[in-house]
Amino acid sequence: MKPLRSLSGLIDFECAARWGSFKLAAQELHKTPAAVSLQVKQLEEAVGFPLFVRHPRHIALTAKGQELAIAVGRSLGDLRAKVAALQRGDEEAILRISTTHSFAIKWLVPRMPRFTKLHPELDIRIDSNDTPVDLEDDGVDVAIRFGPVKDGDPALLFRERLVPVYSPELLSEGQPELTLSDLARFPLLCERTPEAWLQLLNENKALKGKYDFSRTFSHWGVLAQAAVAGQGVGLVPYGIAFEDIAAGSLRVLNCRSAPYGNGYRFLVNPHKEAMSKVQQFRAWMIGEMEAMRRTLEVNAF
After folding, report:
1. pLDDT digit of tens for each residue in the chain (301 aa)?
2. Does the CA dihedral 279-285-286-287 come out positive or negative?
3. 173-186 core/surface letters (b: 16 or more CB in 10 A; e: else)
4. Residues ≥6 apart with Cβ < 8 Å to 58
5. Is 11 exposed, middle or buried (0-12, 13-18, 19+ CB in 10 A)?
6. Domain region containing 135
7. Does residue 294 belong to any structural domain of this protein?
8. Closest Cα to residue 144, out of 190, 191, 102, 113?
9. Distance, CA of 54 to CA of 52 (rounded, Å)
């Protein structure tokens, strides 16, 4: 297997793949069709497999050609975007944040006006995606990710705690708050499985009882919204429910919380670490998380 020693021909190949024609690619590249065809042929010799099936009146990508065309198209798109950003001088003016759907909707987006008020010069781009991103991708500056955390991790922002929450609409007339004994009266909203609920009930010596775990959700944010809507009592990360708790849309059931090993980490594209936009956003995130942590400690959920 020979390594690809030259990138010559990749632009011609990507263009021909996009148009499905050497002739049309030649028009875009201001070359002759023969020159484009030769570049592609030399690329095929370099990679060791055919990229196109050549028919009398048209060309068609092979299976491997299709895979390479996707990869090359993506890389050239990133490269063109990078060059355009450098030409405009806006690399420091755009902050690209990747995070999960639930965290973006329930925590980050409601707070972003505070950050943009401090830094109105920044253009904020938030990509909410539960799939981990490549931190070396030029389209990502920072990523806030939810998952297992350890004390002492320099990237750790906030160690989460699961709290049972409910809408005030669930209270009977004259009832000041829900208690553990009320849980059997309502659906207990779960994120995928009731495991976390069982741990919390065990922590509070309340496992004995008939509980309804029939309503499950794929995202914490959706679960929190279901609790706000009064569909039952939800067990959610404190950070996801924080804005609704502060607004009074949700209340926290007074009980012991179960051990939980997940939290949020602040990850940075290694090529962007020194940029002021990254440093500004990290400092702001740490401050916001610290303020939320203090409310968690004061209320001792």
Report:
1. 666 777 778 999 999 999 999 999 999 999 999 999 999 999 999 999 999 999 888 899 999 999 999 999 988 887 887 777 666 666 788 899 999 999 999 999 999 999 999 999 898 999 998 888 888 887 889 999 999 999 899 999 999 999 999 999 999 998 999 999 999 999 999 999 999 999 999 999 999 889 999 999 999 999 999 999 999 999 999 999 999 999 999 999 999 888 789 999 999 999 899 999 999 999 999 999 999 999 887 665 5
2. positive
3. eeeeebebebbeeb
4. 20, 21
5. middle
6. 94-159+262-299
7. yes
8. 102
9. 6
> Domain boundary residue among 213, 228, 252?
252
Q: What does DSSP say about strands 233-237 and 162-166: parallel, antiparallel, or unpaired?
A: antiparallel
Are 92 and 120 a contacting pair, CB within 8 Å? no
147 and 276 inside one domain: yes
| CATH number of the domain that residue 66 is part of | 1.10.10.10
pTM of the model: 0.68
Quote the tokens at residue 155.
Answer: 């990237």
Do residues 186 and 293 lie in contact, with contact meaning Cβ atoms separated by under 8 Å? no
Largest Cα–Cα distance in the chain? Answer: 85
Residue 301 is given by DSSP the state: -
Residue where the block lists tokens 């708790």: 245
